Amino acid sequence: MIKAYAKSDIGKVRDTNQDYYYKSDSLDEIQLFILADGMGGYNGGEIASKLAVQSAKSYIENNFKQIEKDKESIIQLVASSMEYANMIVYEKSKESKELEGMGTTLEVCLIYNNRAFIGHIGDSRIYRIRKDFMRKLTQDHSYVQKLVKDGTITQEEAVHHPQKNMLMKALRM
């Protein structure tokens, strides 16, 4: 049995919470968990995160019944839902000057037949907890994570790096 929990926190720096998430009912044919964190410092981060979650959710729900239920088709469905969410966020960003440059991270986890299919962009994370062991399933798309991966800085140095929040990938224009 899968148990999922979601909690959002405004953090210490921002005036508004730019997080948005969706957790499906465990009785559904698929279990769907989606999380987005609007990019702080950018206009409309809270709008981008809500739009991304709602768009990815509706795309998956509207298309799941039509696809083959094999691994490749489900992976493609998750990827397409993220592309669709990106398009929606981009189109919304063009509607007004105040929304120009808005962006968000996006995490999608679709569970079908006890298998998890993950879509990930940005520095939000997906973890799996089994018994007493927690494992991070995604890798941050951040500048600092790239420096760690390249061996330029250590994981300890990354924690306090001045550019630790600079993303290399996100949903945005």
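Above is the first protein from milestone M3; the second protein from the same milestone is given next.
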Amino acid sequence: MKRSLICIITFIFLIVLAGFPCPAKESKPKDIKPGTDLNFGTIPVLQALPLFVAEEKGYFKEMGIAVHLQRFNSAMEKDVALSSGQIAGYFGDIMTPMVLNANNIPVKMVATIFSTPKGQRMFAILASPKHTGKTLPELAKEGISVSSNTILEYLTARLLSSKGISANKVKLIEIKNIPLRLQMLLSGQIPSAVLPEPLATLAEQKGARALIDDAGAGISSTVLAFDERFLKNNADVYAAFMRAVNKASAYINGHHDEVRTIMNRECRVPEPLQASFPIPFFNKLTVPDHAQVIDVYKWLYEKKIIKKEMTYQQIVFDGNLP
């Protein structure tokens, strides 16, 4: 069992790294009742913005629950915290809950918090400033820097496949550290790389060229996930949490100027982009898309990252969203 847990944590280390809702009617904050505390993990990325806004605007308290956002610097720290019971739920990519679940850690996705729309990307494959004249197939053959066995590798495979570039024509260059990957891209040490926003935009400002991105592709949703035991025993807290996040999303969509300061601080937007980077649009929470969940699962299964046969119902919680 100990050896198995070490293997799970080792894999998690490789994992990196949404209808406009009508604003809810204002209501007086409810008294927080005993037993309504929730430790919830997150990381400093744009897609988690509703969580930070809900905390700062007092929406969790308004719904009668005490939510303690636990901020982690890496996905590894966050995922290990869930595995060890330090947090009851977390924000993250669509892949990690499947890996944990397949390794008998009872976690399930409950909702999609962000799904990249057509007009805004969250990930892109970019050419180095010294390789901007080359085509995507050429750069795929020369090398694309990514972190293997992660959601970024999955996105890379699906984006290249959409352009008819098969896996056997792609050279992947392993660089796990994203800031280092950015630095090596800009210096020309690697021909191309996969970067998340806002670093993709920063790279473009410094001369890199975006070759393809995930805007509207339906392959890069981020989700909220909970320990299944928490969900079964705390239905009211779960429902209140989701209502608070929906209210925060609606607030973001209607108050861009007011939330920019929160986004810059909590999502660590680079200083050159803090005044101009677009505020993401957040839909009301939705159940994770069946087709996308199964596609990610099949990719993991084919790569033997997950060796257990699983259904959508085993991966996604079937509770009703508020």
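Note on the second protein: The chain is about 40% helix and 15% strand.
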